[in-house]
Amino acid sequence: MSLTGIPLIVAAGFGVIAAAALTVRAWRRPVVRPLGILITEALLLAGIGLVVNRVELFYPSWADLLQQSDDPAVTAAVQPGALDEWLRTRPAGDPFTWHPPGWTDWHLAAAPTVVVPPDYPDHPDRRYSVVVVIGDAGAGPPAGAEQTVVVVARTTVATTAAALTEDLPARLSHDLRVTGRRWALVSPASGMALADQAAAVPGRYSAIAMIRGRPGDSRAPVGVTVGTSDGLATAVAWAARQTPPPLAAAVPPVTWLPVHHRPHRPAGSAPTRTGGSLVPGQPRP
């Protein structure tokens, strides 16, 4: 069973019920009674822990939970994004068209547009949360956010949830200093089906801002905050407030929590970065 899967949580729930029933049945036995209570409480705490882990993704898999390391826990420096140097040459906060490798396979209506916070080039030690605008909500001028990276992805009926939860985050994490989880989505009411599918992936999107919709129109998964708005700028601002503030270098990257799960590399070596993004005006290696 998957560590974050529903079957394991259900099994833990049945275990609590079974342990409680056996404890009640053997209540008259002084030796069995306290043991049954302890087992029931332990199973209950384990079940609660599984639910929390599913939402927060502290341990995405059994390998992460069981992995041991003798290396001291150290915080990692924030690695620069592939576009960081190029962004220093541009006016602060100006949107740009983003052409990451393979973006045409995401089945978008056009290449994504990205807006970084005005102070992004001035804080190379920070990682920023992300707001992704999908559907025809991104047809107008892109709206920026003070402390959040905004990506406008004009999705189509052919766009899949995997493009929003796997492909786009992977490329964006290579090109910009962004966090790995608890992003937010902005969608028109007509795009809520795709938004719901994307938000169903644990840990990726924790909030959805729906434009020109009503709370009853949304079928967002449990744990996802849903807000409504009549304008793109207002929706982006609300969604940005639902994400964590920028993380400085003193905080381990969220994709590396807990720190002792970090893959071992020889001292002094740097992680390998592959690929690149074709952005108009970006220097080529």
UniProtKB/TrEMBL annotation:
The keyword Membrane applies. The chain crosses the membrane at residues 6-24, 31-52. Keywords: Membrane, Transmembrane, Transmembrane helix. Residues 259-285 are annotated as: Disordered. This is Uncharacterized protein. It comes from Actinoplanes subglobosus.
